[in-house]
Amino acid sequence: MKGNTYLYILVMAGVTYLIRLIPLIFMRKEIRNVYLKSFLYYVPYVTLAVMTFPAILSATANLWSALAGFSVALILAYSGGSLFKVSILACLSVFIIELMV
Amino acid sequence: MSNKIIPWKNGIKDGIPIALGYFAVSFTFGIVAKKAGLTPFQAVFMSGANLTSAGQFGALALIGTSATYLEMALTQLVINLRYCLMSCSLSQKFEAGAGWPHRFLVAFGVTDEIFGVSVCKEGKLNPFYNYGLMSVSIPGWMLGTFCGVVSGEILPARIISALSVALYGMFIAVIVPPAKGNKLLTGIILSSMLLSLLFSQVPILSQISQGFKIIILTVVIAGIAALLFPVKELADER
Fold first, then answer.
1. Tens of pLDDT along chain A (101 residues)?
2. CA-CA to A91 of 20 to 30 Å: which in A53, B57, B140, B223?
3. Where do the TM regions start and end (chain A) (predicted)?
4. Residues B144/B51, Cβ–Cβ less than 8 Å
5. Is B123 left (phi over 0), alpha (psi -120 to 50) or beta?
């Protein structure tokens, strides 16, 4: 028997929202513990680095365009480009390399 | 007033690359959703209500196999558990006096990308910045889904391929500047990337899903880093 698609969507939306909401509701006080504070400070850097690499290498049509996008993003980010600039120029370099290769 | 409008506008500006990246991903999602038998409305509704790429792709597979609702709930819990870690981190950025409604609204938009951009912003979190991010990225996510379902042919593959790199470019723009001149952060970022590469290549480790890989590596690496290099002056740095 096939379930109701809307019920599936509501179940998944409910679960996903609760995962996001519960820590924000129950962790209202500032954490004083130095270890926990440091841990939470490092979380975003580790998470974003893990999500970016090596996934970026297989995100585009071929490895070369991915490497071009990756390098352009690294160089621009290092020289202090805004989110928008880094992101758009990375896309553009992928596009140009794929036109050539 | 400017305490709300300006952060909101900044959020919109920083949200544009998120929206472009979302468009590319959700376009693909739309195509798959159509194949799985969802109507355009159902697909867009799923995107608008969930905002989670891996979770939504997983859901399509489950709907296809007529899974039970409990299976659906557990799968989403496992795939999306990383958001819990992100919300913990985000909770410390909230001003102590920030009211309930803000927490409920910001929670809805805790995605990898919105989290990454807002948590690395200097100072305390202004919920209006998050609303700015959400007010362009959510429409981008839903519009991409719609275009993908209605026709997989609207955009040439080249454009989708180019846009696919937008989100990664943004992540790099978030983590690289604070690491500049900071050997500790640079080391942490490089080790994270190396271990992530290792996890994708080593036979048994590569079986682990992307969501769990993120959780395991984050807990281990940030856990060790916090033990070896406790940060004392967090209030000044963030």
1. 456 899 999 999 999 999 999 999 888 877 788 898 888 889 888 988 988 899 899 888 899 999 999 999 999 999 988 878 888 899 899 999 999 87
2. B57
3. 6-27, 39-64, 70-97
4. no
5. left
**What is the distance between the alpha carbons of residues B158 and A85, in angstroms, rounded to a whole number?**
20
Query: How close A69 gets to chain B, by Cα (Å)?
Result: 7
> Residue B71 is which amino acid?
E
Burial group, residue B63, by CB count within 10 angstroms (0-12, 13-18, 19+): buried
For chain B, the structural domain boundaries read 2-174, 181-238
Give ipTM to 2 decimals: 0.88
Q: State whether the Cα torsion B122-B166-B13-B107 is positive or negative.
A: negative
Structure tokens at B74: 């557990």
The token pair at B72 is 């659906």
| A69/B169 touch (CB, cutoff 8 Å), yes or no | yes
B46 close to B163: Cβ distance less than 8 angstroms = no
What lies within 8 Å, CB to CB, of A50 at 6+ separation is B192, B193, B195, B196, B213, B214, B217, B218
Give me the residues of B, 126-165, that contact A with CB < 8 A.
157-159, 161-165
Query: B77 and chain A: CB distance < 8 Å anywhere?
Result: yes
